[in-house]
Specification:
The protein contains eleven helices and ten strands. It is of the alpha/beta class and 289 residues long.
Length: 289
């Protein structure tokens, strides 16, 4: 098996988490005596490289199935190719609607939809945090735009509108213009649907500009250990909130404990993302991103 591994930099740990599960299975004798061959390809979060890597695995190595794959745009770039060739794909790492509808027996997704995720975050912001001025900072692809529509819908049910909706391209790194616009909007809270790297840059930029707001991100950024590391502690200091859709990573669960015991034998890894990789492969029900 091999993942269409969109390495969104920090999210490369997802594929390593899956590898750990397959290594555990092989160490225990494999499946009916057969060992799993697991291939990883890093596409640098670039859909054209995803296509090249997936085609090479299918046409040169005869891959039976794919597990994981990070990034909505990257996964969408190979979806038709894999399904047309009737290759099983388990848990592409995306909650975009296109991975659920229409139904296809070769595509098994596990992620909550971004529609539901963004709607729940918005509901929490309105009902629990009592925010009146909410802005949206979103990736300019299906990941962000599906969430944007859902946030607007939830707000409309409460007779509210976004005070700003600021898009960002996946490859952008200078986010000063976007953060300035968010600050100018007077947003009490910003709902973010962006990559970990961009979320970290936006947070740092906001602090440098004196922009005090409540950042609220999707479950894709729920690896607090990692996010604290790449923001030098700002993630916790600024009180960033994220959603999540599974139990805690150190929950009292037999499979989770077994996976974490194996994880301790490896060099230090990113907590939530590598645990998600394990879940994709059936090894743990720990924290997902």
């Amino acid at each position: 098996m091999g993942p269409a591994d969109g390495s969104c930099g920090t999210m490369g740990a997802v594929a390593r988490g899956s590898k750990l599960v397959f290594d555990m299975v092989n160490d225990e004798g494999g499946i009916a005596g057969r060992k799993i061959k697991y291939f990883i390809r890093d596409d640098q979060y670039n859909p054209s490289q995803t296509v090249a890597g997936v085609r090479e695995l299918v046409e040169r190595h005869g891959i039976f199935a794919f597990v994981g794959g990070v990034g909505t745009a990257c996964c969408q770039s190979v979806m038709s190719y894999l399904l047309e060739n009737k290759i099983i794909w388990i848990s592409p790492c995306s909650g975009a609607t296109s991975f659920y509808k229409p139904f296809n027996p070769y595509l098994w997704n596990m992620w909550p939809t971004y529609e539901n995720d963004s709607s729940i975050i918005t509901k929490y912001a309105i009902e629990k945090k009592k925010f009146k001025k909410i802005a949206m900072f979103y990736q300019n692809d299906d990941y962000g735009m599906v969430a944007l529509d859902s946030v607007k819908y939830r707000l409309s049910k409460n007779k509210m509108e976004l005070v700003a909706a600021i898009p960002v391209e996946p490859i952008e790194r200078d986010l000063s213009s976007q953060v300035q616009k968010l600050k100018a909007s007077g947003a009490e809270a910003v709902i973010g649907f962006v990559s970990p790297t961009q979320a970290a840059i936006a947070l740092r930029t906001g602090v440098s500009l004196g922009f005090k707001t409540q950042w609220m991100h999707s479950y894709n950024l729920s690896d607090y250990e990692l996010m604290n590391k790449i923001t030098d502690g700002l993630w916790a200091k600024e009180g960033v909130i994220t959603s999540a859709f599974t139990q805690e990573p150190y929950a009292d669960n037999a499979l989770t404990k077994k996976y974490l015991a194996a994880l301790r034998s490896l060099p230090p890894q990113s907590g939530g993302y590598i645990l998600y990789g394990g879940r994709c492969s059936g090894g743990t029900s720990g924290l997902c991103t």
